[in-house]
Amino acid sequence: MSIVEVTDLGHTYGTGRAAHTALGGLSFTVDPGELVCIVGPSGCGKSTLLRCVAGLLRPSVGSVSYRGETVTAVPADLAVVFQDYGRSLLPWRTVAGNVEFPLRDRGLSAAERAARVAEALSWVGLADAAGRRPWQLSGGMQQRVCIARALAYRPAVMLMDEPFASVDAQTRADLEDLVLKLRAEADMTVLVVTHDIDESVYLADRVVVLSRSPATVVETLKVDLAGPRDQIGTRGSEAFVRLRTEVARLIRR
Amino acid sequence: MLWELIARLSVVDARFVPPPSLVLSRFVGLFGDAAFVAAVVSTVLSWMIALAIAVAFAVLLGLAVGMVPVLRTVSIPIVELVRPLPSVALIPLVICLLGTDAQTKITLAAFAATWPTLMNTIYALGEVDPRLLETARCFRISRWRTISGVVLPSISPFVLTGVRLSASVALIAIVGTEFLAGGGIGLGQYAYMWGTNAGRMDIVLAATVFAGLFGGLVNAGFLAVRRRWLRWGPEGIGQ
């Protein structure tokens, strides 16, 4: 059974003349353990879609269900990683303090929280930065803190909204590989929204291609790339090039 | 230097503008004067009480006004109406109500000092990054912890700027009221007595130097607190 099910989802901002329809009725599902990328042209409503899935925004029409239940608020075991990492970390808390902050309302003892924080920071390779402040870190490191915060929360589903759009190319490649590694280790379902075609193919088990605004699902592609993925081998393979061309063609249409 | 020169060359009457060297020696001498020490204690204590009352009131009211949209809409025009009232203009009214003791200057200073902190608190609440609040929602952080752990730290640099401005406003209001209202004791009253009754400008100016130094030190203290603990934050309004 699917863990996330989006059915005829549509959303319109405002009313009357100022109304802007961001989502034009789209449906797709995500299975447990799957990594699905949602790719579409800039401004097509991807972030609106993700906010609806996260339960942060109530859609105008259609519904999102999570484990079979309609989403009306943020589900308990769902975590979100935003693009603007700098604005979603608390500058007055240390790296460890930021990762620990969401765990406080979850009935964990101080020792359990500390253990989870240490584990999450070592997963993302930031064990040494635990005592530093977010603004003392590079953009890529800040985004890893956000990922660690989401991981420490032990979500069943991790939603990522353009997670690597604001970091340089090398950091981006490192973070992509980090997500693939973590997803295998932590047994998570991951839903990534991106405008980057190569990234969507490289990361995903399945790519959902969206149309221009108001967004609808153009097509869903299964990504069957052989073996574990790596930045050079995978991206150079014939299957990868064929898939990325296919996605590019679907987006342009 | 210019001041010293003018005074020494008797360009103006040295009784009205004594040379700085004389003021400086008077300044040192002030600390041996029991009346001066008593005046300083009275002024500083009143100032601390007034500032504490003003800050507590302004922060609580600011939080209520800033977080409840209805209160915000209703109260902003009222605040803008009352705020420009100079506290010295209220001296006669407050004397009628409270007499001429310390409660008068404390009340007036608290009134004057409320505004910078209040305005900064209300303004800061409008500036809390919506992404931080959304992140808190994503992680299902309770309402109370969102306020205590996200909103309050977010606004603290602005509030501190407000408190720093309130501190100087309160000091001005205290000394000003002491000077104008008479009665009681205090730095302003001390300067008034030596100035009007004895014509001793050297002592008056020495007391002025003390008031200026004290105000400067308080301001520097607040700036140091900010540098030490709130380096990450924005500055606030009304610099």
Question: What would your notes on this structure say?
Answer:
- The complex is a heterodimer of chains A (253) and B (239).
- With 253 residues, chain A is an alpha/beta fold.
- Chain A has a domain of 70 residues.
- Chain A is built from nine helices and ten strands.
- A six-stranded mixed β-sheet of chain A has the order 6-7-8-3-9-10, with helices on both faces. In chain A, strands 2-1-4-5 form a four-stranded antiparallel β-sheet, with helices on one face.
- In chain A, strand 9 and strand 10 form a beta hairpin.
- In chain A, helix 7 packs across helix 9.
- The longest helix of chain A has 18 residues.
- With 239 residues, chain B is mostly helical.
- Chain B is elongated, with a radius of gyration of 22 Å.
- Helices cover 78% and strands 0% of the residues of chain B.
- Chain B has ten helices and no strands.
- Chain B has a single domain, classed as MetI-like fold (Orthogonal Bundle).
- In chain B, helix 3 runs antiparallel to helix 8, helix 8 runs parallel beside helix 9 and helix 9 runs antiparallel to helix 10.
- The mean pLDDT of chain B is 84.
- The interface between A and B is medium-sized, with 22 and 18 residues.
Which helices and strands occur, and which strands form pairs?
The complex is a heterodimer of chains A (253) and B (239).
Chain A: E1 4-13, E2 20-30, E3 35-39, H1 46-54, E4 61-66, E5 69-70, E6 78-81, H2 85-88, H3 95-100, H4 110-123, H5 139-152, E7 157-161, H6 169-186, E8 189-194, H7 197-203, E9 206-210, E10 217-222, H8 233-236, H9 238-252
Parallel strand pairs in A: 3-8, 3-9, 6-7, 7-8
Antiparallel strand pairs in A: 1-2, 1-4, 4-5, 9-10
Helix pairs in contact in A: 4-5, 7-9
Chain B: H1 2-8, H2 20-30, H3 34-67, H4 69-82, H5 91-98, H6 102-126, H7 130-138, H8 143-181, H9 187-197, H10 201-229
Helix pairs in contact in B: 2-10, 3-4, 3-6, 3-8, 3-9, 5-6, 6-8, 8-9, 8-10, 9-10
The value of Rg of chain B in angstroms is: 22 Å
CATH architecture of chain B: Orthogonal Bundle
Terminal Cα span of chain A:
32 Å
Task: Specify the biggest β-sheet of chain A.
Answer: 6 strands, mixed
Radius of gyration of chain A: 18 Å
Percentage of residues in strands of chain B: under 5%
Structural class of chain B: mainly alpha
**Helix proportion range of chain B:** over 70%
| Quantity of strands of chain A, as a count | 10
Largest sheet of chain B: none
- Class by SSE composition of chain A: alpha/beta
Unreliable residue stretches of chain B: none
Count up the helices of chain A: 9
Strand order of the largest sheet of chain A: 6-7-8-3-9-10
Whole-Å distance between the termini of chain B? 30 Å
Q: Round the mean pLDDT of chain A to the nearest integer and report it.
A: 89
Order of helices and strands of chain A: EEEHEEEHHHHEHEHEEHH
State the domain count of chain B.
1
What is the average of the pLDDT values of chain B? 84
Number of strands of chain B: 0
CA-based shape of chain B: elongated
